[in-house]
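Self-study notes.
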Amino acid sequence: MIAPLVSGQEVVLLAVIAVLWLVLGWATPAFLTADSLRPLLIEVAPIALIGVGMTLVIVAAGIDVSVGSQMMVCGVITARLLVEAHVSLVVALVAAVAVGALMGAVNGVLIAWGRVHAIIITFGTLNLFQFVGRQIFGSRTVNGIPATLDVFGRGAAGQTLGVPHSFLLTAVIAGAVWWYLRQTPGGRHFYAIGGDALAAELAGIRVRRRVLLTYVVTGALVGVAAIFTIAKGTTTLDQSIGAGEELAVIAAVIIGGTSIMGGRGSVLGTILGALLVQTVSSGVTQLGWPSNLSDLFVGIFVIVAVGTDLLRQRARRRSR
């Protein structure tokens, strides 16, 4: 089912984020300053951007746990192109998107035509892509990354009116996908597939092509997110890039109200979910608490979101 313009869960998320910001602003006054919020938005951008693609995947009753490894491959290829071939920003961006889309296509073909559950396929490709990334790294770091990507970085070149370009681009892409899902027949097909793939196929929807598209789009967005991640770092890239990214992304999507069973979800909710996840992480750091507490709090939010979704589905079944 397509969510209304703003769902109840999104309103709740906005309220929770507002309360957290107020509490953190009271506990650490520096939190609500531009110098604190700007880095928060920079950190949110890659998670939210991949989350937009993951929303498509999960709405269509799939999942992709390989996005962290995909980011590793996109990141190291892009970094080496910047260092060794001295490519421009446009070439780096195109290369990252192309590599990500190719890995997404591998997932999509195996899932759509192999008819094997997405969690099994993407767990396998997680290890495959990680191996490829490590081979390209060659057991060493990529050093001397130039300032080519400064337009997406932390400095003055990476912002307009104080808002990071990475977050602005994420917002534009999220807005386009939000409109596509809500306003076009093709977008509504993803919800139909997640609700009942067999019924969708009988209704004439090309289910396999749509499923393939969700993984290709997600892979392409991983490529852009890899650019954002390199840009916010130093001149050195190591093999930790992308580590744990899949967990943060899936958490953001689920907290944002997308049903893990498929058929229901919202891009706006995902953006809010990513903002909540990063707010918790930043808040724990600024309060000086142990970093593992952020995992605890995010885990609680995920459990609450999944439990709410299951109760909602049970109530819907009873009403029928």
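Second protein, same conventions, sequence then structure:
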Amino acid sequence: MHLRRFEGRVCVVTGGAKGIGAAIATRLGLEGCRIAIADVDEVAGVAREKDLRARGVEAIFVRADVANERDVENLMAIVYSRFGSIDVLINNAGIMPSGKELEEQSLEEWRRVVDVNLTGVWLCSKHAVKYMKARGRGVILNIASTRALQSEPNTEPYSASKGGVVALTHAMAISLAKYGIRVLSISPGWVDTSAWQVPPREPRLTPLDHGQHPAGRVGRPEDVAALVAFLASDEAEWMTGVNIVIDGGMTVKMVYLDEGVLEESLAVLLRDRELAHCMRRLIEVAREDPARAKTMLREVVEKL
């Protein structure tokens, strides 16, 4: 049973039709908030609005591209006209880059990722703030990423945009404090959003995916939504300007690759410790005598 911490309040969730945004919209809606979903996916947006209303949540869907200022200004005007206030803004909308090598990334791709992920946060905040100022309070929560702090290869546009979100967060927190508006960012790690797609999908995760997290599993959108619900509530009124990481412990985990780490990973992946130990021994042999290891492996394969 959820609390009812947001009775009478209005929340705009960008990218709220699917994934983490949909989970946030649902959590805040079940806690009494009136919800405005903004998304470019009209089919998913209409479906999410219908789902929320079926759960007893007062909700609307507005198609909006957060990188388009006219769309954003129109979005905030519609929400205010319909509900009479904007109390909480969740800047969640974001897109991923192509994953191409740096020298193959186009300027158009860079601009689109930064426009949606970073400029969109600035635009939505800019046009929501005037309604928050009128009430003398408000909360802006920006969904960043652990990619603001660490990276995988070929994610330059995404990592840069999310790093910018974290910096923009503390800048706005200082600028807007005098108006009673709090601004925070959240950096999720690996979150599986399969169940929050339209239609929902089955997760495709391995034991190794879960096991490498100190917390023992990959994240769920509900994990992020629960944190958002706290940060957006009056219980967190002394928090502003900070970035909170929620990643199952991955960003603080040091990993040194050696045979022991490989054996443990194989044991989790194969669910067979004896086989994992045998493979470790093969690796140890290969370090000293690659030809012998190849012969041993060939003999094993021939017997299968």
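Instructor comment on the second fold: The mean pLDDT is 95.
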